Amino acid sequence: xxxxxxxxxxxxPGLNAVIRAIVRRTIGKYGGQxxxxxxxxxxxxxxxxxxxxxxxxxxxxxxxxxxxxTSRTNPYKTEGGPEAIKRQFESDELAGLIAVGGEDTLGxxxxxxxxxxxxxxxxxxxxxxxSGTDFTFGFDTAVHIATEAIDRLHTTAESHNRVVVVEVMGxxxxxxxxxxxxxxxxxxILIPEIPFTxxxxxxxxxxxxxxxxxxxxxxxxxxxxxxxxxxxxxxHGLVVKQGGTDAFGHVRLGGIGNELARAIEADTGYETRxxxxxxxxxxxxxxxxxxxxxxxxxxxxxxxxxxxxxxxMASVTGDRIIPxxxxxxxxxxxxxxxxLYEVARTFFG
Length: 349
Ligand code: F6P
Fold this sequence. Notes:
Blueprint: E1 2-7, H1 15-28, E2 33-37, H2 41-46, E3 49-52, H3 54-57, H4 81-92, E4 96-101, H5 103-114, E5 119-123, H6 139-160, E6 163-168, H7 175-184, E7 188-190, H8 198-210, E8 216-221, E9 226-230, E10 233-237, E11 240-245, E12 251-253, H9 256-268, E13 272-276, H10 288-306, E14 312-317, E15 320-325, H11 328-331, H12 338-345
Helix pairs in contact: 1-10, 6-7, 7-12, 8-9
Bound molecules: 6-O-phosphono-beta-D-fructofuranose.
């Protein structure tokens, strides 16, 4: 039985653990073959393949990134894309394809499944915003990296009596911001789920400085909406970089940290700096948690293909790895709950 695998969307620590698990399980337990597709859905459309045997996955468990490469290619935005994929399935004689990705990659996978292709999903994103699973691998690594950065920024902020704004990733949700912010003892955490005003931000900082603390750490998710004052009062808007949208219609976020730092300094008079963590959160070796989660997801996905249980994706609930409908990945985003944010809020100011 030949099993295909691709990794799509932004890369994420733990992808190689998934690939290795799929290969080891499919070959070791079932005596099957695995065919990798390079650069996400682009590899299936163009027949860009990489046969994966035991040698190809040897030593990749601790490596960041993905040995298959990745892209944000959307076959449904490419002339003849889905048809090319269907032809490729036939010519490669695939028994099933495992798509490892976030809402976009899994959304394409689910659509192709509905059109008759044998597809299984593995959810991935450092943002941790996929519904139906407690965690996605990559998130734990990103939180560790951001927490370490916040720890380091604390000592320099304190030495200089500065406010430091730390911009972390999180396109639609503030999971990294909240978890790393709590772990790093942030004085304020701003996320897409909870609107804020500049006045509130500056009040928190002023009060803190008023009780003798001469520095503050503000963690902000890149997708939080920056309160811009328009003629008709206060408007909120995303801060984006230039460069249009990707094939799934997403703008390139980034820059809210700078905007916020400028506004805080102008309003409070406290010297304010910004640190944008960016891709550092996605690069490098995965934590043990992400290696184990990726491995368990990969093993389940390989089993689902053998059982011909298509249209499902791996998920984790508590410590149980279970298959759920792939449609969960696209139905709605998993947002930070108010209970967790309330815990964070306890330490503001
Ligand atoms: O979806 C994960 C993510 O890391 C987001 O947090 C971020 O907005 C986006 O990817 C950036 O992706 P790109 O690699 O396209 O710049």
